[in-house]
Amino acid sequence: MYQYDQYDQSIVDARVEEFRDQVKRRLSGAITEDQFKPLRLMNGLYLQLHAYMLRVAVPYGTLSSRQMHLLAHIARKYDRGYGHFTTRQNIQYNWIKLEDAPDILAELAKVEMHAIQTSGNCIRNISSDQYAGAAADEVTDPRPWAELMRQWSTFHPEFSYLPRKFKIAVIASPEDRAAMRLHDIGIELLEKDGKLGAKVFVGGGMGRTPMIAPEIKDFVGAEDLLSYLEACLRVYNRYGRRDNIYKARIKILVHEIGADEYRRQVEEEFAHVKTLGIDPPVAELERISAFFAAPAYEAGAPDEIDLSDPDFRIWVQAQTVAHKQPGYTIVNISLKPIGGIPGDASADQIDLMADLAEKYSFDELRVTHAQNIVLPNVKKADLYAIWQALDAAGLATPNLDLISDIIACPGLDYCSLANARSIPVAQKIAERFADLDRQRDLGELKLKISGCINACGHHHAGHIGILGVDRKGTENYQLLLGGSGAEDVSLGKITGPGFDEDGVVDAIEKVTDTYKALREDGERFVDTYRRVGIEPFKEAIYG
Amino acid sequence: MKILTGNDLPTGDVVWWTGSDWSRHVEEAADVDEQGEMIARQEEAARRVNAPYVIEATATPQGPRPAHIKDRIRALGPTVRADLTLKPADPDAGNWVI
Asked: Hey, are the CB atoms on B73 and A96 less than 8 Å from each other?
C-alpha cells in the first residue's frame, strides 16, 4: 500500500488544524453558516437528516488493517457503533457532532486518512477495481495510477472550483468492476504494441441525466496520461455550465458540443499542456509503484482444499474469485445479510475484518462500489478459518452478485436529499428472495436502489433498478430494467407507473418469474431482457 | 399548525421550537403561526440553532405530527434502526412515522 511522504502528511495535518480553527470560529459566531458550509463540505462534513454526516475518503477503496481498526474506533467513540460503506468506496458516519469533527480528522490523519474532497465541486475520491493487484485478468495494477491521480488531483489549484463535482474511475481489466463508463472520466489501462497506456472515456454519469461515457481517446501513452487528464479537465473547467446546476456536469458539455468537438478541443489543449511538464518523471512513478509491489506469496501454496462442509463449499463458490497467484484467492465479504442494511457494518465487524486482513491478507482490505469488503490476497488453505470467523460475526452471507446483494443508498432514513426510503425496500426484497437456492437459480442479478434522482444507489445501472420518488407526499417506486455498470454497460428503462413499497417487491417477483419462463440455457437475467425486450416484463407487471 | 425545526449547532441533533426554547422532542413543539421565519432568524443569529425552517404539522392529542414523512423521520429517527430512535422501546413508534 502507498504510504504518505512528508508532503502528504504535512498537507493533511495542516488541513486538520485549519478546519479546527474554522469550527471554533463557527461555534463562537465569528462566521455564519453560509460562510462555514462550503468549508465543512470541503472536509466531508454534511448536515444530514438527523445530524452531521462525515464522509471519509478511502482512496481507490484500499485500506490497511490499521486504518480499518481506526474506522471501527471512530464508529465506537464518535458515532453510534457502526459505519456505512458507500458506492464511492468510501465510508460515512451518520451521527457526528460538529464539535468532535476536528478530533476525528486528527485521528484519521494519524493513519494517513482524511475527508478532503469527499464533497464539493472538485475531483472526488478516485475509484478503481476492488481486485486491483490480485485479479487474474488485469493488464497491470491500476493502483499506482490511481495513486498518481490522487496526488495530482488533491488540492489541484485549477480544479478546486469546477462547475460541478467530478468523478474518475480507473481499471486495468477487460471486466469492468468499477462502473468505469458511468464516471465523468473512465480510464481503462491497456497495452498496445507492448506499450502501456489508456483508453479514455469522458462524459458518463448517473444522476437525473444518465449517460454512458463515449470514448474520447483510443490510446494515450502512460507517460502522457496526466497531461491528457489535465487537458480534459481544462476544457470542462472553461466551458462547463455554471449557470444551471442540473446542466453543469461534464456529461452535458460533451453531449451538447458532441464527442468529436470535445475531443478536438482536448487535443488542442493537450498539445499545450504537454509543454508544461505535468507528467511525473520515471523515478517518481517507480517510487509510487514500489508501494504496490506484490506481497510475499508463499510458493507452492495448495490450490486444492477440503470442501466437504456443504455451507463452506457454497460460500467458497459464491464469494471467492480467481487470483493471479496459484494457491491464493480473492475473498468477498458480504455486507448484505438477509434483512440487513446494505453497506452497514458494526464497529465489531469492522474490527474483525481488519483482524482477518492482518492475519490472512497481507494487511490489506478493499471497499467495493457494491458496498461489500474484499480481502484481496488470501491463501486458499486459510479459507475455512476465515469463513468460520465471518460466519460467527454474521458476515458470511453467500450472495455475491445475487438478487439479495443489493446496492442501496441511505435514502430517506438518513439523507436530506432523498424522496423515499431505500433501505426498507432492499430489506423486503432480500427477505422475499431469502431462499438461497432460489437466488442461485436466478443467477447473477444486480439490483440497485436509489431514494432520489441523484442516483447514489446506481439504479440506472441495475439489471433491475428502483428509483424512489415523492408522489404528493407519499413514497413511490419506479422500476427500471436492463441496466448494467459492467463492461456490457447499459442504462435501465422505466417499466411504467410506479408502485408502493410492497407493490414494487411484488413487481420484482413478477419480473423474475418472467425471466425464469423465458430464459434460455446460460442466459443471465440481463441477457434474457436484452433478447426479448421490455414488453414481456411489462405485460407480467401491468397486464 | 406550523412548527419550527432545525439542528442544534454543536451536536447536529434535530430540535423543535417550544415557544421559549429548543427541544429534542417534537411533541413539545409549539405552533409558531406566522412568526416562524422571524423566530428562526433570531435564534440562528444567536447560534441557538442551525439551518432552521418552518413546516406544516397536524395537532394530535400526543402533540404535533409533521405533515411530511421526511420530518417525521427526522423527529423519530431512522425507520430501519429502532434502537437508534428516540423511542427504542415503543413498538408503535414506527407507525407514527408511516
From this structure: no
CB-CB: which of B10, B12, B73 is closest to A413? B73
User: From chain A, which residues contact B within 8 Å (Cβ)?
Assistant: 26-27, 29, 33, 47, 49-52, 80, 95-99, 341, 412-414, 416, 418, 421, 423-424, 427, 473-475
Q: What is the CATH number of domain A310-392?
A: 3.30.70.3340
DSSP codes joined into one string, A270-294: HHHHGGG--SPPHHHHHHHHHTTPP
Place of cell 404528493: A472
Map residue A523 onto helix, strand or coil: coil
Instruction: Answer yes or no: same fold for A6-58+71-110 and A310-392.
Output: yes
CA–CA gap between residue B17 and residue B27 (Å, rounded): 10
* CATH architecture of the domain with residue range A134-290: 2-Layer Sandwich (3.30)
A36 contacts in chain B (CB < 8 Å): none
For residue B34, the enclosing domain spans 2-97
A92 - beta bridge partners? A55, A84
Q: Mean pLDDT score of chain A, rounded to an integer?
A: 97
Rounded (10°) CA dihedral A49, A413, A60, A221 = -90
| CATH dotted code for A407-542 | 3.30.413.10
Q: Are strands B50-60 and B2-7 parallel, antiparallel or unpaired?
A: antiparallel
How many Cα atoms are found within 13 Å in the side-chain-facing hemisphere of B66? 22
- Closest to A408 in 3D by CA, of A340, A339, A456: A456
Contact list, B7 vs chain A (CB under 8 Å): 47, 51
Provide the domain count of chain B.
1
Which three cell numbers, joined as nine digits, stand for A103?
Answer: 478530533
Contact A253, A240 (CB under 8 A): yes
State the pTM of this model.
0.97
Domain map (residue ranges) of chain A: 6-58+71-110, 134-290, 310-392, 407-542
Q: How far are the Cα atoms of A63, A317, A400 from residue A310, in angstroms, in the given order?
A: 32, 11, 17
At the second CATH level, the architecture of A6-58+71-110 is: 2-Layer Sandwich (3.30)
Q: Provide the grid cell at A529.
A: 431482457
Contacts of B77 in chain A (CB under 8 A): 50
A328-341 tens-digit pLDDT: 999 999 999 999 99
Mean pLDDT, rounded, for A390-394: 98
pLDDT band at A323 (very low <50, low <70, confident <90, very high): very high
